[in-house]
Amino acid sequence: MAAPAPAIAAAEGDDAFDARCAAVAAAGNLTEREAEIMRYLARGRTKAHIAGVLYVSENTVRSHVRNIYAKLEVHTRQQLIDLVEEERGADGGGEAPGSR
Description:
Oligomer: single chain
Largest sheet: none
Distance between the termini: 22 Å
Helix content: over 70%
Radius of gyration: 14 Å
Mean pLDDT: 85
């Protein structure tokens, strides 16, 4: 079973996690705001939490989430998290051979 998204982000460092999110956002042609919301979603945050942090309504967040899912061709938050995790392998973000 995979670790929850916040634990993964903390374990590997926020910079690496943000870089993977940025790569996914660029590949999906997300707007700056959509990319920002996607980072929160990939960390497992709820729509209500995101709305509170960004000072927008939950309906606005819901709209952005719909657009993000459509652009990235995913249907659930778990698929989004998996997509960000797949980026780890694509950018060589795993451990270097012999690093243990």
